[in-house]
Amino acid sequence: MAVAVAVAIAIDVSSYWDPSTRPPDALAYALAATLGVLLLGRRRWPLGVLIVSVVTLQVYHFAGYPGISAAVPLAVALYTAAAAGHLRWSLGIAAVYLAGLLLMRSFGIRDRRDRCSTSSCGTGRSWPPCCSSATRCAATAP
């Protein structure tokens, strides 16, 4: 599970680069790998893994790297913490991320996947095939 999450996050990191963000480098991939490796301790320290995962994800975002969805790195940690009896922590962290998303939407801030899922990308397909040429996709987004 940890390897699958680390690989999924690494693919997400490398799949898109916006000229307004810092290009992914070794630190970006190290943070992505850290999010996957943290899951190895999720059964023994479910709340600790959840909190460190959130902090690691925030370090990644505050470093200015291209945005990655919080769903992949946090889903397993949120579920494990909730199942271990830390439901309030899991719901609280999920609520903060949901509130952030709703706040971004209310101000018209769009996610990169929104830009890439439109037909302005040329293919009209979903974001992974569409964003094979990320700069073209970002440049043609409305």
Mean pLDDT: 77
User: Describe the biggest sheet?
Assistant: none
Number of strands: 0
Which range best describes the helical content: under 10%, 10-25%, 25-40%, 40-55%, 55-70% or over 70%?
A: 55-70%
Report the total helices.
8
Q: Rg to the nearest angstrom?
A: 16 Å
Q: State the low-pLDDT regions, or none.
A: 113-142
Give the strand content.
under 5%
The sequence of SSEs as H and E is: HHHHHHHH
Count of folded domains? 2
Backbone shape: globular
Distance between the termini: 37 Å
Secondary structural class = mainly alpha
Tell me about this structure.
This protein has 142 residues and is an all-alpha fold. The chain folds into 2 domains: 2-109, no CATH class; 111-142, no CATH class. Helix content is 65%, strand content 0%. The chain has helices spanning 2-15, 26-38, 46-62, 71-83, 87-106, 112-116, 127-130, 134-140. Helix 2 (26-38) packs antiparallel against helix 3 and helix 3 packs antiparallel against helix 4. It is globular, with a radius of gyration of 16 Å. It starts with a helix and ends with a helix. Mean pLDDT is 77; it is low at 113-142.
Summary of the model, kept short:
This protein folds into two domains: 2-109, no CATH class; 111-142, no CATH class. It is built from eight helices and no strands.
Key attributes of the depicted protein:
142 residues; mainly alpha; 2 domains; globular; disordered C terminus
Layout of helices and strands:
Blueprint: H1 2-15, H2 26-38, H3 46-62, H4 71-83, H5 87-106, H6 112-116, H7 127-130, H8 134-140
Helix pairs in contact: 1-2, 2-3, 3-4, 4-5
